[in-house]
Amino acid sequence: MQPIVKLEHAKKSFGDNEVLKDISLTVNKGDVLAIIGPSGGGKSTLLRCLTLLETLDAGDLSYGDLEVTKTDASGKAVYGGKDVLKQARTKFGLVFQNFNLFPHYTVIKNVTDAPINVQKRDKAEALAAGRALLEKMGLAEKEDMVPCELSGGQQQRVAIARALAMNPDVLFFDEPTSALDPELTQDVLKVIRELAAEKMTMVIVTHEMNFARDVADYLIFMDGGVIVEQGRAEDVINNPQQERTRAFLSKYEEE
Amino acid sequence: MLEILFSGFLFTAQIFITTLIGALPLGVIVALCRMSKFKPLALITRGYISIMRGTPLMLQLMAWAYGPYYLFGLSMGADWKFVACSIGFILNYAAYFAEIYRSGIQSIPKGQYEAASVLGYTRAQTFMKIVLPQVIKRILPAMGNEIITLVKDTSLAFVLGIMEMFSQAKALASSQVSMLPYLLAGAIYWVFNLVVEMALVRIEKKLSYYHD
Ligand SMILES: Nc1ncnc2c1ncn2[C@@H]1O[C@H](COP(=O)(O)OP(=O)(O)OP(=O)(O)O)[C@@H](O)[C@H]1O
Ligand SMILES: [Mg+2]
Predict the structure, then answer these.
(1) Residues spanned by the domain of B109
(2) Which residues of A50-70 are buried (b: 16+ CB within 10 A; e: fewer)?
(3) Which residues of B fall below an 8 Å CB-CB distance to A?
(4) Structurally, how many domains does chain B consist of?
(5) Which residues of chain A are within 8 Å of residue B117 when distances are taken between CB atoms?
(6) Does residue B212 lie in a domain region?
(7) Which residue from A113, A118, A148 is facing B212, i.e. has the nearest CB?
(8) How far is B112 from chain A (nearest CA, A)?
């Protein structure tokens, strides 16, 4: 079976700053992959390249059998045309650290506008699907509110519903709880746990080590633009092999 | 006397409405050209905005009205002054509006564009559905100021011999040797602006269902 996401030898620099140095990863259907690592290690940049918010300098990226970019003979990443990128964007969703909900839309419109106007789905069907998702997120009563009337944790769950409403093959999360108060964090983590139990394919950048260990099948520790260590989430967190991983994890244990 | 002033007011209102209908959408297009990544377009637009804002509107109106004759020897017919007046007002106000739109567009966080991109919205959809509605809310106070100025600026049409309210007041005042026409005209401008302000407050209220 084709992996859902396949990235090989990805490189990305901002000026002289080499942020991704030869990153490869594969995500299979139903996998939950956690990415951890110190600040500035390139985690967000990696997700932004995977979600086409940044372009890779080099590397091969494909979603299922859709080839998004391929390295040419000179070593440069060559992206597919508009159609390819458009199709690729139907394959993934992204949940941002600071939600990025549309403030002028109600909760239900945030969740259903793209299904209706981008995917051109039937309005009634999209509305029913949106309501079901909000219900699942514990937000059934909030559909007519606007984001500014919700707590951060509620806003993030709307953002998750908005992403799920597009029926993506894989959902990326960039530190989904970092902007939240600790007591609101748990509501969001609980929702992600439920998605994992339903075998939703997910890639999660997080600083919540216990959560990563519990929910992720695989884990990547990234530092300085390289994958320092990877393996089964439990193994890497409980029994890290690399000195850098150990040093990083020990900081979290102290807390 | 009021009758004559009101007949002038019809022209005043007409200039006001024509300018808004033309300049509000044109200003968006000018703002987008001004921010274009295609440098020559951005530069030309910048020049246009600079000239429109840097020279008197009265002079611009005269240039549109008499330029065709003085420059090219074209005689444009009796109705040309109305067309010239519309062109002059719309192009001038579009430049002011464009700068306001631009500041509004630039104040929208990058995350809004990124969220829209990941959801697959086209660039046009992103602008029309996500960005512009938020921009309108943000720029409403600044737009309100310009629109109130426009009410008063309509009187500049007198230099083209258009009998809007100010011209009528001037004619009445000199024929009757009286301040009264000016006072009445002033009162009508003021009431007009009160109505405009009320409309603006209503729009502001309507958009206050969210804040960001
Ligand atoms: N648009 C950009 N332009 C220039 N440099 C950038 C840009 N985005 C990221 N960087 C740089 O890339 C490096 C990696 O940043 P990135 O945000 O990917 O790290 P991160 O692992 O997500 O960190 P954090 O845990 O703090 O979120 C940093 O040195 C950052 O300054
Ligand atoms: Mg980051």
Answers:
(1) 2-206
(2) bbbbbebbbbbbbbbeeebbb
(3) 109, 111-112, 114-115, 117-121, 125, 129-130, 133-134, 137, 209-212
(4) 1
(5) 52-53, 89
(6) no
(7) A148
(8) 6
- A102, A112, A156: best mutation site toward chain B, by most B Cβ within 10 Å? A102
Q: Which of A12, A20, A39, A44 to mutate for ligand 1's pocket (most ligand atoms within 8 Å of CB)?
A: A44
Residuewise pLDDT in 10s, chain A (255 residues): 789 999 999 999 999 999 999 999 999 999 999 999 999 999 999 999 999 999 999 999 999 999 999 999 898 999 999 999 999 999 999 999 999 999 999 999 999 999 999 999 999 999 999 999 999 999 999 999 999 999 999 999 999 999 999 999 999 999 999 999 988 899 999 999 999 999 999 999 999 999 999 999 999 999 999 999 999 999 999 999 999 999 999 887 755
Across the interface, whether the CB atoms of B118 and A93 are under 8 A apart is answered yes
CATH number assigned to the domain comprising residue B146: 1.10.3720.10
Q: How far is CA A224 from CA A6, A7, A46, A174, A243, in A?
A: 21, 18, 12, 18, 14
pTM over 0.90: yes
